[in-house]
Amino acid sequence: MFASVRPAAVAGLFYPASADELKAALDGYLTQASSILARKTDCQNSQDESYPSPKVLIVPHAGYLYSGQVAAYAYALIQPLADTIKKVLLIGPAHRVYLQGGALPLSRYFETPLGQIPIAPDSVEILGCQQCICISELAHQQEHSLEVQLPFLQHFLKEFELLPLLIGESEPKEMALLLEQVWGGNETLIVVSTDLSHFHQYDEALRLDRVTCQKILAGQGTILSEQACGCSSLNALLPLLKRHQLRLTQLSYQNSGDTAGDKNRVVGYASFASFASR
Length: 278
Description:
By secondary structure, the chain is an alpha/beta fold. It has eleven helices and twelve strands. It has one domain (about 15-60, about 70-110, about 150-275): LigB-like (Protocatechuate 4,5-dioxygenase, Chain B), CATH 3.40.830.10. Belongs to the MEMO1 family.
């Protein structure tokens, strides 16, 4: 018998378990992000109503102490879209269960300290019948890469459905075709969860991550697992951005040596946004 609600697995570990503390943390990250973005002419324009809205966000998934501020630079851009976005396609890597292809949950709701989010049944039905997609509650049960994004989404969006997809070892073209089926219009936001290099010395991480960020911005769907743990998601997504004539903008980069760790073994974090044409 499965639980219809997937409870929060990393509340109190990756982010505050108290709803009040969580809201305060999110407010702090997003206030700082909005202030800095407002000083950048191109990002300031992208938030203006006369400019396109973000279609795709690429964000990190470490504990908020480490990467919450980097993620906030992307999430700050969806502030004007609370009434527009009705569905979020959230994709990322599985850290605890080996996957070939993708995995959807059996649960009907995902829960955080900020409440429950309904899973999009129509989209699950579309993807769930594909040969390379399995239904696995186990894969989602303890996975943090998707969960840490949920409070940011709940903080800004009003009522929305979630399509949480974990992607493991897979063929990028095959996954891209599946993502195309649930691409949607302005009502659908796509969020890709990934960190960058892991456990290199600070200066080496800067060098490696600079190369990876350049590949992402160039739309090169050849990201390796040592460059980004969400490489399978990125390699499926990047060709779709080209097909839809979308351009990525890098919003922020830091690593754990900049935020809350030492500089001997760091993890890299970056955030990007891509804007849909009207």
